[in-house]
Amino acid sequence: MTESGQPIHDVSLLLSGANEHLACGADIDELLEQAADGAAGQLTSHQRDCVYCQAALREFGRVWEPVRSLAAEQVTVPAALKIAVASQIRKLVADVWYTLQLSDGGGIRVAARVVARIAREAAHDVTGVRVAFGRSTHSRMAGLVERATLRHRHPNAAVGVLGRTAVVDLAIAVQYGDQLDAVARDVQRRAVAELRSKVGLRDVTVNVHVDDVIT
Amino acid sequence: MGSDVDDAYLVLRAQEGYVDAYADLVDRHGQLAYRVALRLLGNHHDAEDVAQEALVTAWQQLPGFRGESSFPTWLYQIVTRRSLNRITRTRITASLDLLGDLNDVNAGPSQQAERDLTVDAVTDAVTALPPPQRVAIVLHHFEGLPLAEIARITDSSIPAVRSHLFRGRRTLTKTLAEWR
């Protein structure tokens, strides 16, 4: 029943027009909020004795049940999303490459981001390292070179070209209690070895930044 | 490994040019971007497009992100704005596959059909709401965000959010009651 005392046969009718209160004086929007929040069964002292409130809450709860059920469903993210985002970002970040070989037989180049990734993975293998991220320190400089050469239609314009000398930054967070300098040196040694053996870079410099400790 | 550190750490590293730190943020919050876009737009195709745009935009705008709000709040803001742009541009009303690949493998054909109908009805009812009400309903009742955070995300006030919620709840309830 509404405040006018007329019987209500369905929810649509109850919510249409200017009805704001039930016959008992309860605010319809507050009851709707209670039901939508999944609290239709948690009755106040007034509601425990009020048939109007109980009927409205029961009906609102029934109508909102599929909404609440859908809201609780896990949504699976398409696998392609992450790949698409990574690909877009790669286009935005200056594409920098290390040249390993240039000969009549063709060239071999490795992207700086691959080099940074290998250094990162090497750091992850060191005991005491909880988090590691790698970046090429050449990125900014090579990006400028790339843009400049592109503007002049230089033959090497497709890439920012570096030699066989790599400089990589590693930011690591270390397990609290471990000896920081020892962990950092181990990371440095391992990353250099990996980049020499897996990539074939001749001169490798790895700067390690311990920027956090984790308990 | 990224799970050992908080969002603020990853944001700082990403701002310094460690692209993998941003990849970890995408791993962590890509679902949020996609889920909100899906609820607001009602179909997977547009949701994927908008989530992708939002995550790339967040990367581009990361240098200006000062951490005054949390990264998820900031991402909610970008996704919501992108979704609203898409809504006003295309006036999407049809939406049929909010659950998509979430079909219940234990349900029989008739149960599944009924479930699909219910999902379609809820999705249609939500996407038929005027945009401000839709945003308030999705962020509060689907994402579970408090009114103050919704006000921050939508650059609005708490009373305005409450008002949109009240009207949205009434409209949604009437639509679903008539459907049943």
In short:
The complex is a heterodimer of chains A (215) and B (180). Chain A is of the alpha/beta class and 215 residues long. Chain A contains eight helices and six strands.
Could you please describe the fold and organization of this structure?
The complex is a heterodimer of chains A (215) and B (180). Chain A is an alpha/beta fold. In chain A, 47% of the residues lie in helices and 22% in strands. Chain A has 8 helices and 6 strands, in the order H-H-H-H-H-E-E-H-E-H-E-E-H-E. Chain A has helices spanning 11-15, 28-36, 45-48, 51-72, 79-92, 112-124, 139-151, 180-199, and strands spanning 96-103, 106-111, 129-136, 160-162, 165-175, 203-214. In chain A, helix 8 (180-199) links the parallel strand 5 and strand 6 (203-214). In chain A, helix 2 (28-36) packs parallel to helix 4 (51-72) and helix 6 (112-124) packs across helix 8 (180-199). Chain B has a domain at 1-93: Rna Polymerase Sigma Factor, Chain: A (Orthogonal Bundle), CATH 1.10.1740. In chain B, 72% of the residues lie in helices and 0% in strands. Chain B is built from 8 helices and no strands. The model of chain B is unreliable at 92-105 (pLDDT under 50).
| Largest interface (CB < 8 Å) | A-B, 55 and 54 residues
Alpha-carbon distance between the termini of chain B?
48 Å
Look at the structure and give the mean pLDDT of chain A. 82
Name of the CATH class of the domain at 1-93 in chain B: Mainly Alpha
Overall tally of domains of chain A: 2
Class per helix and strand makeup of chain B? mainly alpha
Estimate the strand proportion of chain B.
Answer: under 5%
Q: Determine the number of helices of chain A (DSSP H or I, runs of at least 4 residues).
A: 8
Query: How do the SSEs of chain A run, as a string of H and E?
Result: HHHHHEEHEHEEHE
Number of strands of chain B: 0
Percent helix range of chain A: 40-55%
The CATH class of the largest domain in chain A turns out to be: Alpha Beta
Shape of chain B: globular
CATH superfamily of the largest domain in chain A: Cation efflux protein, cytoplasmic domain
